[in-house]
## 1
Amino acid sequence: MFIFPNGVSRISGILRTSFSGYYWLLPHPPCFLQCQSLLFHTTSQSLTDSATKEQLDPFSLVADEVSLIAQRLRSLVVAEVPKLASAAEYVFKDGVEGKMTHSKVLLLMGSAMDFHVAESPPQGGGCALAIEHCKRQHSLAEITEMIHVANHIHDGIVDDANKRGGIGSLNFVMGNKLALLAGDFLLSRAFNALASLKNTEALLLLGTAVENLVTGETMQMTATVEQHCSMEYYMQKTYYKSASLLSNSCKTMALLSGQTAGVANLAYEYGKNLGLAYQLMDDILDFTGTPCSLEKGFLSNTPHGIITAPILFALEEFPQLRAVIDQGFDNPANIDTALEYLWKSRGIERTRKLAEKHSSLAAAAMDSLPDSNNEDVRNSRQALVILTQRIIRKE
Amino acid sequence: MFIFPNGVSRISGILRTSFSGYYWLLPHPPCFLQCQSLLFHTTSQSLTDSATKEQLDPFSLVADEVSLIAQRLRSLVVAEVPKLASAAEYVFKDGVEGKMTHSKVLLLMGSAMDFHVAESPPQGGGCALAIEHCKRQHSLAEITEMIHVANHIHDGIVDDANKRGGIGSLNFVMGNKLALLAGDFLLSRAFNALASLKNTEALLLLGTAVENLVTGETMQMTATVEQHCSMEYYMQKTYYKSASLLSNSCKTMALLSGQTAGVANLAYEYGKNLGLAYQLMDDILDFTGTPCSLEKGFLSNTPHGIITAPILFALEEFPQLRAVIDQGFDNPANIDTALEYLWKSRGIERTRKLAEKHSSLAAAAMDSLPDSNNEDVRNSRQALVILTQRIIRKE
């Protein structure tokens, strides 16, 4: 059994993953698998059965690697100042706040890229190259996760959030000041790790994503009523806040894997459309979900937090809704009136259609990738396509 | 007259700079001068007179360039979201909050480096190279200024500052949320500009500086009483907060100018020691300055904000001061008691000695640079040495 430099067995043992009450065995997470088949020319036996594929939780393919990354991030932030380290560690509890979704998608994207080493690499060269490649993939996933969490923390301060992702947000638990510093700390660590990748294009893409995140939050915070009522403005802001980081990271992942600009753009399109579809479905859940999620939608960051895609579509059908919006939602009666318009409009249905469109575009981007003979690559692509379907079902 | 690509005349006209009531003429700022002498083999006539040198305001050498950078930064931050742009612009008022000190030192450092082009560059090549070099120097100064201001803004939030640098701080004027976003925005712009430099070492050095700034602020915010009473802890924090950015930027400036690692380390030493000397003198001013600055020292960020170098030296002489520190400074009587110990100790004098030591080390770093035949280079080095003397006089 080959041991990875970080001490993790490349044959990572039995993974028990729950999906619809069904437990199945996955001996190898895909990045390791891909390295393994590159190095030892073995073939994965794991995911060939189409029945298994249908039941596949797409993220289970990378569960082991994501745990490893979460663990590494927790160690990484144990810095010189213990109080800050504990604050930063707080948000890397896998499955709690951050959910590590970015890492999961990115690792799948990494293994969906057909990484080649020369047929006859210099002795030991192929092995070293493949390991280095895996390390860079992990590093990019970590960087993206750190940027995401840093932004999440700062947004929590700006939005006066007391809960994000189901648990108390960092600013609520530890105060705004420590939360601000924890965000800054993570962002600076992310940029340092990015510098270590020594790839200018990666830096430009991720730098753009960070700038977009800030711009998106500022657009949300400072919009005029006119801007709040514009679907174009809303979609631009949604791209900045919910799709730019994922799309630019996916593109970077493709470039780090030595792919062409064309393939990198498909990876970008996947990330962008997945992010948009996810946010649009989240907008629907604010209205159709649990009372808790409904409250979240209504009590969100701005007096106009209620104005997301469903209300904007309702506004197109019922222009008289504008008068209610102009009055604002400090008065709960105005929320009720807006909801009345929403329920008699096709707002929810049209938002779902738009989410489905973006979901399809994401799947189409995966399907447009050049064919691969590598089964692990195909499995990862399949998992990414399944993910596009899951997102619009919000399972 | 040669016109720079950005529309600024390389022969920048008459600069009227006030120093001790004396007005003098400086036809060329040094970076332009250096480019000019590189391109046209002319010699500056400006600063040869030693009497003039003695009266030189070191920053006047780069006044024109700094104004240009301040103007560029104001334009740069006019982004897609006008409210944020106005917030960011607010802090780039030259001579008010930011003072552009980092830019001034860095531009002097840039022109203190002996930048060479080949004797017979390809037609037009020397010109293009020199212009590109100047642009990169300006870019580094802008990046450093943006990082400094972003940090300044976030520190203002953490410290609950209502005044920084003599005017209302951004968080006080525009609220914590917009200030937080403005800081994030500037930091992301800085990293994007850094990516455009396409220099991995620059990215690593500036990335380290950003991380140090955050670590320093966190050390200040979260220190135990034991740590507050440690001179070693204090100096480490002071390096992170007040010297790391300048030292790493000075080093980067040297590297961008194609200097050796040895020269780059001398530039680093200059920045580090200048930053430390500046902060130590600032610590003294908190006790000996105007009532306003005294108030600033006492009402600063933490309950232990009074514990800077002078008090730490006093504590060495009078260990019984520790009991007062342990009680904290919520009670003004404890401040009075601490001051009594300070005035009968050598705390101020020893802090000044330490500042002088660091000032001398900065000057020694400049004096250790390899000799240069270029008069403009020598003038800039001289200005940097004068600056080390000015700082300990706090003129």
Note: The beta strands of chain B are 16-19, 22-25, 163-164, 167-168.
## 2
Amino acid sequence: MHPLEKMFRPRSIAVVGASGDPEKLGGRTLLHLKELGYQGRIYPINVSATEVQGLPAWPSVADLPETPDSALILLPAKHVAKAIDDCAAKGVKHVQVLSSGFAEEGGEGVAMQAALAEQARAHGIRLTGPNCLGSISPPDGFFGTFSSLLATAKPPPGSVGVATQSGAYGSHIYAVAGFRGIGISRAIATGNEVDIDVAEAIDYLVEDPGTRVICASLEGCSNGEGLRRALLKAAASRKPVIIMKVGSTEVGAAAAATHTGSLAGEDRVIDAVFRECGALRVSSIEEMLDVAYVCSIAPLPPVASAGIVSVSGGIGVLMADACIEAGLSVPPLATEALDAVRAVQPMAGGRNPIDTTAQLAGRLHVIETISQSMMGGADLGAIFFYLAHLGRDLRRFPKIEGAFLALRRNQPDRTVVAVMTHIDEVRQQLEAQGVPVFEDPTRAVRAVAGASGLRRLQTEAQPIPDVEQAEPLGLGIANEAQAKALIAAAGLPVLPEHACTTADDAAAVADRLGYPVVMKILSDDIPHKTEIGGVLLNVVDAGAVRSGFATLMNRARSARPDAKLDGVLVAPMMRGGVETIIGTLTDPVFGPMVMFGLGGVAVELFRDVAFASAPLMPERAERLIDASRGATLLKGWRGGPSLDRAALVDALCALSRFAAAHRGEIDSVEVNPFLVRESGACALDALIAFKPGHGTGKPT
Amino acid sequence: MHPLEKMFRPRSIAVVGASGDPEKLGGRTLLHLKELGYQGRIYPINVSATEVQGLPAWPSVADLPETPDSALILLPAKHVAKAIDDCAAKGVKHVQVLSSGFAEEGGEGVAMQAALAEQARAHGIRLTGPNCLGSISPPDGFFGTFSSLLATAKPPPGSVGVATQSGAYGSHIYAVAGFRGIGISRAIATGNEVDIDVAEAIDYLVEDPGTRVICASLEGCSNGEGLRRALLKAAASRKPVIIMKVGSTEVGAAAAATHTGSLAGEDRVIDAVFRECGALRVSSIEEMLDVAYVCSIAPLPPVASAGIVSVSGGIGVLMADACIEAGLSVPPLATEALDAVRAVQPMAGGRNPIDTTAQLAGRLHVIETISQSMMGGADLGAIFFYLAHLGRDLRRFPKIEGAFLALRRNQPDRTVVAVMTHIDEVRQQLEAQGVPVFEDPTRAVRAVAGASGLRRLQTEAQPIPDVEQAEPLGLGIANEAQAKALIAAAGLPVLPEHACTTADDAAAVADRLGYPVVMKILSDDIPHKTEIGGVLLNVVDAGAVRSGFATLMNRARSARPDAKLDGVLVAPMMRGGVETIIGTLTDPVFGPMVMFGLGGVAVELFRDVAFASAPLMPERAERLIDASRGATLLKGWRGGPSLDRAALVDALCALSRFAAAHRGEIDSVEVNPFLVRESGACALDALIAFKPGHGTGKPT
């Protein structure tokens, strides 16, 4: 049985710290268990009372007449350890510590939390919290939480599961879901996560037959592998995961670090991991619930395209714009389909969006023909109907309900959405037919685009392959020549070049290579050569090579007097092609990652760089390339030739395997520029940084 | 009196085409006038009835006992002309034609619409429509419209004015506003706009003392000057205008063109014009209403910074991220302010966002000290309170109302926002104190950021100066040398270069200029030289110049056998600096516009180009530069020197004056690249396109 099953659906539960005063957390939690429909046995634990809120109470869990499935602990922090021991003595294996006063308060709370973690492990107890808001399972009437929401609202039962670290975040999500009529299957807040974390909660919700869609929110993450595994499991079972990770900006990340003490990695790495594992990242709670709403009611669009039928030309255009911006194409209908539309609605304008004009209101019977014709006239993953205020009109609305029903029956795998002002009764009737209803046209489009993206991500998701650790390189630092030799050995194409220690030597090499050549200073101590003028391009003859040798050595000596200079590299000058940057880095949570971007100012000025987990297989390398605008340049720019994308894919795969195989030693690799040419590609420069304490070279 | 006054607030009104059947548009409109609170005199006009819906009816406006302030015409299109004549005969000067069947249906509708426009002009009648939804003025109980919304809901009176072309768009806006409790002052849909357009409606709403905020939506625009004038008038009177223009994508623009027949200019020109005129462009109706809501209740934030107080660390971080992404800084509080916060709430974490922890719920009295300390600890334009579910709790909420009141009183020009789940009663109480209330944290932030942006735009807005038309240039086409001579005469720095007709000539020029040099083919028939290999960079000596001359001529001859070749340009090779593109274009609606962007792939690959109306004064030129990422490069890149921004500003101003002074002749100018250097700047290439039919050169 999944360890979370007893936290969501216990047959019996102890409330340690139960109180008669509903203003106190232990009183409020007991009240929620008593009053909101829970059918299991409730055991209030209170050191001094024999009865609490009308229920018989016990001084300790150890005294209970049975071993409860789970326990909620709401005592002050300093009493929690004793309560855990009592639970262990009684054989309780599933405990939620709702008490605060642990690591989040700093000081001795940190040590108390570490002790709590160790205590649970020693007893074989699975533990949620501390400092968590508890769990709910509305279909079971189970509300094991002190959330203040429950004083005024009870989230309705449904199929959306919620897993968050933050309790307020989670209760905000299920509160708003409830107000909108979106039902909840289970929700849990994992708090300080000494044991159960959001990843494990997601894992439970994937297995839970009562959950159809998962909403998750993270503030930090320490177990990257666990999170990847849970998300991939969801994708494999086609259960949508819509996820937020706060701290996406520097200010936010700093605040999150203060708040949770977790490491802030590169936010785009998080993006990449979520995407690769088939989860949709969103940036607001409202967007999360909009997508969850669509996914919980309707099929996810099988293709990223949309049809739009609107009683208003203006709103039709608004929705077409919103589709394009959100990544849904709006293909024009085939002429025959358009003829069929015009046969029943002669004044209908456009080819998609179709503007039926407001006169549709008087001829609602034609909507079925229009919608069927649209679906026949293009491969549409979704179809939107903008119907103004028809959803408020119980006299008129039933006239078109049949059209929606027919469309859903004939196109069971397409997403059909109604956009209109509406009353709850109309909305509920449509939802029962699998038709989501929105008031705002743009939100409708963005939600469906999210569902469409989710479907694509689920299809593409695949585990990151394991890579055996290679023999240690035994280097603590690598100069440019060594770095290039290493990546060449790893299978990357590298420009032939030669380390020269004298001007004569350089001239002889250049003569052999042919002109023009490139010359670069060679020194372990000067990783960023361009900054000191340490690169000469387009050197045209032997004379220029000789004087260039002196120039480079002099510049290096004056800019970095302490640097050990190893001479000058001479290489053929490459022309044409596009300069890209490929590299790897080590994320503190998710391990080795590959990056790709355009060279020049694109990476830094436009942040046009994409990440993926290492190692890459060709399919994911292709997607990594497509995630950057650089992909456009590779197709040929302004009539130029298309470039050797296959060579780039090979290089990315090889580099990623290299980084993954040496993950113990290598911190990052930067191949910049990596020139992609009409035929072939080559690394023009390379830099490898090793992890501290590795290799035999100088300490870094 | 403003011509729209009588369309919004008539003391008497004729309904031409009034019907006893409320299913018909003429029946429904009459019903709305009769039943929803209108206090003026209503005259049903019906050719055959003496009484309609219990009111005495007349066969024609001409027969009425008085001249009504305005008339609504709801007859079939073919009868509208007669009704207009009747109105004219009676002296009615303000008419709204709600009938459809005009240009929007094509065919003879187009001619009928042209005739209608002419007829109104001839009679001196101001006309809204045809094909419009009419106007409403909820504070007057006036609903001169057949909108189906009114069957179930009546927009409440308030201070938000709405001006749209599309009727459905407008009624969607005021419907949703009403559901949210946002009251409407006036709303009008202008339909096919033969006379009154959205710009004139905005002009009215600026003058209207009952309107505090204006929401507008356009599908097309034919009167660019009128729109600029109305928006600038709003900005000058500090009345916020929140505006949408659909057709922002290619697909949307094509659909809008089908729908309205209007020209689709460059969407970023629209962006620029709205911004320059102080209006905030938004992309969804919900966003429009969110910003309007804040502006209608609270002061606009005077600085673009925010403080965040949250009972949840996670939501605080979410909001900090949202602030940064929306352009609001989140400055850390000064230490003394932080100490003051901790003095009353010791467990509070962070420096902004402040995480009070959920324990705030039990100590609500400290919120006043916390908020006052925050405001004292940084220059904050706005302060957000995330309070979980406190807004649903009538027992607890009143405990903090005083804190909001005190904050509003002590900081009357700052925006104070509550974010929480809530009931209407709590929301209304706070709104009455000038505090907007949101449920979704991200929407709250984006709305306030919109209000903040609006305030900045209003402050910056200024009219585009008039420029006297210059003497005609008398050119129909200009080769590169002529184009450079023209922009040099206009005051732009241009590289010294020389047209050479022989290889010897070129070598002699190059010797004089010094090496290396740049060589370019010179021909009127080859505007895009790089595409045919018509540019040689870095030519190092006289021999190379001679062979380069032959190379260029041969390439040009083989690529464009018909081209007339004027020789080769020789110029010094410029190194260093940043290549930018500056140029002008002629927008079909808004006239001459200036553009600025980075050279290379940035403009096309990243669409990193910004527009502004010509002519520019230095202040707007600075903003134009800052609107592109190129601004970052000018500050010095990777430790490089900062570049001569002043020279760029001068060039942009000079080029914009040139384009504006020759707006009759010149269609576009492209100076690409325009090299901005450490000291000075210079145009390396230039291209001028003339309007068809202008000048003495070849026809284009």
Note: The longest strand of chain B covers residues 666-676.
